Amino acid sequence: MAKSCHNGSIPAMLAAFPFSAHLREAVLFPVSTGEISFQWSDLSFPFMRFRRIGFEISAKSRLFKASARWHQANMTEIPDHTTPEAPASPATGDSLQATRILRDAIVSCVLPPGARLSEVVLARDFDIGRGALRAALRALQESGLVSSSPRSGWRVTPVSAPEIREVCAARRHLEPILTTATLDELAREKLAALAGRHAALMQRFDDDPTGSAAIRAAEREIIESVAEALSMPMVQGWLNDLWDRSVRLVNFFEDTGPVRYTPAPRARLVQALTEGRRNEALEHLQAANRALETWLLERFLESGARVQSGRPAPARRRRAAQVTS
């Protein structure tokens, strides 16, 4: 018995296929061949099955293409440097240690100003994991010691007159808060001992050309101890960044020129703070900052042509600088 074609589903099915008008009419009306009489609508079941299979193939194809696009976007090889747009990694013990290692190398000019930093070379030479290394470079970028660009990768911040003015201006505005530190008896005793050591080193400054590093280390202990007494971790972090950048500038110009920087007599600062003479302590900080800015700008003007031209570092630094090649 022939199936009826007037169920309303066949025309809708045919509308989805690019058949000719003659074929659509043949499906809707019975045809006689003489001995065999049948209706084209008997083919409705094969057509519907063909359509269902086609939809399944199309869905699987779309799923495969979407999976391929996701794999291409998320499973590609990580580049040798991290661009500024990449998300920062959370700080871990390894990343904090890596930050200290690289910070010391930059401040001491083992990694000289303007040097390009390869993650592969840094990880190998400093024995740092790639994940901790990227987190450390991010932290140093926030401190102003390195910079990054999509094309050039990581780079140690170059020495420039704007940087000198920025560092000194920031210290001029932020360091006066040190005069508000509340010192207990233990802090006073510690500062007195540090001040005595700093004064002893200063007495041998002219006779010991290699004593600058020891004097700066003693000076740093003094001002860090005062900053710690503020109980302001964020402010202390800002000050540490500024002091690191200042020491880096001094190290660079001392390593590349004949003039040494004369440190400020920090024993006077300690005496003023422990005796409660805040105005005197403030005057000391301001005078020390003015002397530093003047010295840095004079050294920059003397060596500006060499700094801007990017000529090689002196022989004693050239070997250390090879870690960036």
Automatic annotation (TrEMBL):
SMART domains per record: HTH_GNTR (SM00345)
Alphabetical keyword list: DNA-binding, Transcription, Transcription regulation
Alphabetical list of InterPro entries matching this protein: TF_FadR/GntR_C, Tscrpt_reg_HTH_GntR, WH-like_DNA-bd_sf, WH_DNA-bd_sf
Signal peptide boundaries: none
Gene3D superfamilies: GntR ligand-binding domain-like, Winged helix-like DNA-binding domain superfamily/Winged helix DNA-binding domain
Keyword Membrane: no
Gene Ontology MF annotations: DNA binding; DNA-binding transcription factor activity
Statement: the UniProt record of this protein carries the keyword Metal-binding: no
CDD domains recorded: WHTH_GntR (cd07377)
Domain HTH gntR-type: 92-159
PANTHER family: GLUCONATE OPERON TRANSCRIPTIONAL REPRESSOR, TRANSCRIPTIONAL REGULATOR, GNTR FAMILY
Name of this protein: GntR family transcriptional regulator
Protein species of origin: Falsigemmobacter intermedius
